[in-house]
Design goal:
CATH architecture of the largest domain: 3-Layer(aba) Sandwich
Bound molecules: adenosine monophosphate, magnesium ion
Distance between the termini: 28 Å
CATH class of the largest domain: Alpha Beta
Radius of gyration: 30 Å
Number of domains: 4
CATH topology of the largest domain: Molybdenum Cofactor Biosythetic Enzyme, Chain A
Amino acid sequence: MLDFDSAQKKLAEAGPAPAAPQTVALMQANGRVLARAATAVLDAPPADNSAMDGYALRAADYAEGRGLPVHQRVYAGEAPQPLPPGQAARLFTGSLMPPGADTVVMQEDCTETDGEVFIARPPRPGQHVRRRGEDIARGATLLPAGTVLGPAQIAALASQGMATLAVYPRVRVGILTTGDELVAAGQPRAEQQIFNSNGPMLAALAEDMGAVPQRVLHAPDDAASLRRAFEQLLAECDLVLSVGGVSVGERDLVKPTLAALGGQLDLWKVRMKPGKPVALAHVGGKPVVGLPGNPVSAFAVFALMVTPMLRRMQGRAEPFPAVERGVLLAGKPYRGDREEFLRVRSSVNEQGVRALTPYPQQGSGVISSLPWAHGLARLPADTTVEAGDLVRYYDLKHWLR
Ligand code: AMP
Ligand code: MG
């Protein structure tokens, strides 16, 4: 059995590098991963401009009680005239500074009468001017390669006039659920059957990661059906996730089927709870991860072990989100021979201390723990963990993005 950290690392490294970049329009770039560093082509702002509605002048021209003739009015988008000494220019937020002016006085401190402006208090030289390049200097790295583009990044790219971008292709994920007992939601269910929750769950997880759930198939527990389904998914997708049938039961046929397809089986069992049976194979160069069938296990293994691999395949610079710390508020001591990941809720108190409260039922089939939980608290193996102990915390807000 592999320990959790080694397994996580192995899986992350097993993700092939992303395919060649493609070009997308800026308006289509939300959620995509930048394939090449974006370098500023412009100074931002591109010219000195006013941070306020008010008047521009030379600070040296200010004298108490003196009126300055208003030489020009500069509206946003207009090109100003040079400002003669001893005069002022009316301007507005974003108006360009007239050549010669060095200071802006906000309109609240000014009175304009008969074409002259009177300034109530001495200005600080240079005040309220946004300097050319003070935000971004031309040639500076705006965003490194591997950045996930969101609204903030898109704003920065748009401000540089970048209309198209090189991004990595979206990773196509194929999902295969297995099991004779399963029936799809919306279909009639016999007494002895259960609804398939892992298929829709994994599709949604892949989508939240910015991947494409390209196809979701289900196969009963027979080798021929499994093989056909794997073949189809491998043909259509970059990464295949199967779920269930990966344990040691008589009908657990995923492992032999992958072997029959020529799969190189890299990893088998991980010393973690939930989620002990996890398999990684490469078939024709494509990674296949066999997830455990219990929905909570599949969810946890996806969050902790599949997402770093997926991020790598997406070309993201940071495959591992931050792991935080929190104080466990457990009603009982925990001790196990595998690392345990508890479904917990997190709350931060006034002192900034994070408290982690476990869901009362921690079984790997307890689906009600999933919508309830904020994250996973990690308890080390072979160690007694008690209420008040500091433990590692994997926040799903970060681990599932
Ligand atoms: P398995 O690893 O195939 O033995 O599955 C372990 C447990 O997870 C069994 O109770 C299965 O019924 C359940 N399970 C497997 N796949 C799914 C699924 N797609 N949706 C809901 N439960 C599942
Ligand atoms: Mg099964």
